[in-house]
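Review form for a predicted model. The reviewer records the input and the model, then writes brief findings.
Reviewer: anonymous (R2)
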Amino acid sequence: IAALTNITHDFGHAVKELSKILNIKGRVIPSTISSVSLNAEMEDGEIVTGESNIPRKQKKIKRVFLEPADVQPMDEAIEALREADLIVLGPGSLYTSVISNLCVKGIANAIVESDAKKLYVSNIMTQPGETDHYTVMDHIDAIHQQLGNHVLDFVIANQLEFSPQIIEKYESKGAKPVYYDKDELNQLGVQLVTGQHLVEVSEHDYVRHRTEVLAEMIYEIALQEISTIQFDPDQFKS
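Model under review:
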C-alpha cells in the first residue's frame, strides 16, 4: 500500500488499486485518507503515541484518540455505512484496529445513526498490553464508550473450552481466553451468537476463527434482519 500510495499520491486510490491486484471480493474503504497518529491515554494519565507503542506499555488503556482530531471521513465509507443492512465490527485489535476507526467522528456518527443492526465479532483471546483480562462485555463496553451510545445488537463469541496445553501456551505469551456471561449480555440487550465449530485449533495449538463458519453466522444474521418485500398476487388482478 505504501508503494502504491507513493505512485498515486492518494491513499484511498492506492487501496482500490491493491484490491484489484489481489482480486479482493467486495470493497475495501479506508475510514479516512488523512494522515493521522493514533494516541492512547492510559489509566495513569500517560499519553502514548503510535499504534505499535501502545501495547508495549503494558498499561490499562483509558481511551484512544487521533491527532489531528477533526479528520474527515471518506465519503464512500459514510455512504457504505448508510446503505448497510448489517454493520459488523471486528475481529481485530480492540483499541488499535476497531476503535481507532471509530475515532473518526463521521464514522462513529454514521454507525450510531444507522438503522442497520450492529454486530461485534469478539476476539478469541485477549491481546497482551491492550485487552489484558478483558471479557466479552469489557470489549463491548469499550466500543460503546467510544461511540457514546449502546448500539450493538449481536455479539459472536467463542464457547469452546480449550485444553490446559493451549491455555498454558497462550498464558506464556500474556494472553487468555475471552469469556462471556450470557446473563450479562442479555441484560444489556445484546444477543449472543455462538457455536461449537466457530473456532479451530491448529496442529501447533493456535486458535483461529473458522472463516467459513464465521461468514455463515454473519450471513444468517444479515438475512434474518433484512426486510423483504411481500409478494401480493392480488395487485396484479384486473
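Findings: The longest strand covers residues 61-67.
Further findings: The chain has a mean pLDDT of 89.
Recommendation: see findings above.
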